[in-house]
Structure prediction request, 168 residues.
Amino acid sequence: MGTNGSTMLEPLRQGLPPIDPAAVSTSASCALPPRFEAVRGARKFTQSTLAQWDLTERFDDVALVVSELVTNALRHALPADAPQASREDGQNPPVRLHLMRWTGRLVCAVRDPSHRSPETRSGEEDGAAEGGRGLFLVDSFSDGWGWHPLAGTLHGKVVWALFRLGAD
Prediction:
């Protein structure tokens, strides 16, 4: 199971500032059901993980970003006719949240089955008060974000956000 996080990180590193792989201290991930209640579960998972890592002071910003990334994955990446119950494909759940911590950095990444790139929309578009605003919030509350398609046996993409952990 431990290799899942590290193989996912290879393309992730290409879009991130240089990270020493030896500095990875820990990571955690959870599968999310293809239902909007999954956002609450993702926030609870984030809260307990950050508490274990002694990063509770970052919860508000990280939870907001996690909520937006998970909501986007559920809203835009799952087929409209997807059954409400999880598919029997337990190996590759439709949406998965990964939290990864390095010395001085935290990355939250959400994997989904779609190959479509995430799109930001300006707030002026009519009817776009909610839709498309999520990535603007991700950009505002994180220190950077990006995405990449998955390779190998995994289908879809990963959207990630980076948080710098200050050594004040």
Summary: The two ends are 34 Å apart (CA to CA). The CA atoms of residues 13 and 19 lie 7 Å apart. The chain has a mean pLDDT of 78. Residues 59-77 form the longest helix (19 residues).
